[in-house]
Amino acid sequence: MPVTLRPHSIRARVTLVAAGLSLIVFTLIGIGLDFAVRTRIQDGIYADSERIATYWINWEPISAPRPATTTRIDLLQFVDSRGRVLAASKAAGTTPITTVRPPADDRIRHGTSCAKSGCVVFTAVRLPPLETNLLWGGEPHFVYAGMAQPPILAGHRLELLTAAGVVLASGLASWVAWWVVGRTLRPVAEIRARTAEITLSDLSMRVPQPPGRDEIAQLARTTNRTLTRLEEAVNQQRQFASVVSHELRSPVAALYTRLEEAQLYPDEVDLRDTVDGAMATTKRLQAIINDLLVLARLRTAVPSPPEPIDLGALVAEEAANQLHGPPVRTYATGPVMVLGNRIQLIGVLNNLLVNARRHASSAVDVTTTRSDGYAVVIVADDGDGIAEQDRERVFEPFVRLADARQRDPGGSGLGLAICRGIVGAHHGTLNVEDSPQGACFVMRLPLMDADLSPTP
Questions:
Q1: What end-to-end distance do the CA atoms of the chain give, in Å?
Q2: Which terminus of the chain has fewer CB atoms gathered within 10 Å of its CB, N or C?
Q3: Residues linked to residue 224 through DSSP beta bridges, in sequence order
């Protein structure tokens, strides 16, 4: 199995990158600093030695056997063209500092000369031609001024100090990066630890949310919102499953009881009556299952492409199909165009109309109009109405009021829940509102030409 050298920790990776970059940067800085220090020290020595040599030429007698010096430039020599030391300071001795001569086109030359005893930084100055001609018959003479090379330039001490500074600075930068990244990622570790504790059986826990508006704080807030939605969805699913099992248990138990009775007492039970009862119970189960499938598809299926629909014409068409029972009177204020699924909206209107006619005393009024960018369909009956505390309960799955159970014993209690789900999928709302008499269902859908962004 190949071994990877790449660290898995973000903290380690960032620290390695910071260490590499800081090493490169500080190395470049160290090289530049080393060069600047060397140049500055040498330039200072060259300036002092040139000044001392020029001063000696101009003001001291050339024949002075031992020129005195009180500066760091303690090596002074007066040398002829054959390399003989004619005069020298006490520290310079009688051996020439160097054999280097200034070029013919320049009177001054700087340099460093090394021997077994050490290196010397010097300045060589050629005497002026007039003085040379007058005193020595044109034979060139030279003045050397210098000093022993400072220890910081003589060896690799400066380079070692610079390298040590680079290593220390890079180490400090790496430690700072390690500390900063660790402190930054500390909330991530806390979020990870808390997330590991959250299980499907207990979704009430939330991850710690750090202050501020940085990416980690936004991640924590988003995670908590997601956990809240997940908890709500799981609770709804559990409640839905509980209600479904309760609603299915009764007809299944009744069916089982009838069949068991027919099996135990074949001579006393009317077989035809048992089969008819079993068929009725099976139809009820089938209706409940079909409604459950419709409700499940509304929550999970990908919506089909919408089409333009004249809601007023669709209401009139569905009202005309209601043949038996109280009459349905429709009122429209002209074309009311919406975007939606025609089959689903027909199902909603049919369910609302059937429900209204079931509870109406004499008639059902359906009004289609436009209001504030929405198409509004009002289905009102003149029955007993719905109590205010039950106006939201009727949209819950399997919730059936006493009057509904009496008028439609075979109902599943899923019709209004499916209607609200369809309307919600169309970015609309379906509610029970106040009415002078009877129940009043109000459906609102965004108009096709409306400039608004409805909230699902």
A1: 52
A2: N
A3: none
Question: What is the identity of the amino acid at 166?
Answer: V
Amino acid identity of residue 73, one-letter, is I
Residue 207 CB burial class (10 angstroms; 0-12, 13-18, ≥19): buried
Buried b (16+ CB within 10 A) or exposed e, 442-451: bbbbbbbebe
Residue 307 Rama label (left phi>0; alpha psi -120 to 50; beta): beta
> What is the spatial distance between Cα 356 and Cα 363, in angstroms, rounded to a whole number?
9
Which one is the CATH code of 199-301: 1.10.287.130, 1.10.510.10, 3.40.50.2000, 1.10.8.590? 1.10.287.130
**Each residue's pLDDT expressed in tens, for the chain with a length of 456 residues:** 444 556 677 888 888 999 999 999 999 999 999 899 888 988 998 998 888 888 877 755 455 444 555 578 888 888 888 888 888 888 778 888 888 888 878 888 998 888 877 888 999 998 888 877 877 778 888 899 988 888 888 778 888 888 999 999 999 999 999 998 888 888 888 888 888 877 766 777 788 878 877 777 888 888 888 888 888 877 777 766 666 666 667 677 877 887 887 778 777 777 778 787 778 777 777 766 766 666 666 555 545 677 888 888 888 888 888 777 788 888 888 788 898 888 888 888 888 888 888 888 888 899 999 888 899 999 998 888 888 888 888 887 766 665 555 555 555 567 788 788 888 888 899 998 888 888 899 999 998 875 444 433
Which residue spans within 89-227 are E strands per DSSP? 108-115, 118-126, 141-148
Is the CB of residue 205 less than 8 Å from the CB of residue 190? no
Q: Which part of the chain has CATH 3.30.450?
A: 11-158
Distance between CA atoms of residues 200 and 100, nearest Å: 90
The angle subtended at Cα 191 by Cα 189 and Cα 195, nearest 5°, is 120
Cβ-proximal residues to 98 (8 Å cutoff; 6+ apart), any chain? 111, 113, 120, 122, 124, 144
Is residue 446 within 8 Å of 452, Cβ to Cβ? Answer: yes
Instruction: Answer whether CATH 3.30.450 is correct for domain 11-158.
Output: yes
Positive or negative: CA dihedral 151, 156, 162, 167: negative
The 3-state DSSP class for residue 66 equals: coil
Give the tokens for residue 117.
Answer: 């005893």
Beta-bridge partner residues of 430? 443
Fold of 305-446: Heat Shock Protein 90 (3.30.565)
> Within the chain, which residue ranges are assigned CATH 3.30.565.10?
305-446
Rounded Cα distance, 450 and 21, in Å: 57
Q: Please give the Cα distance from 270 to 432 (Å, whole number).
A: 46
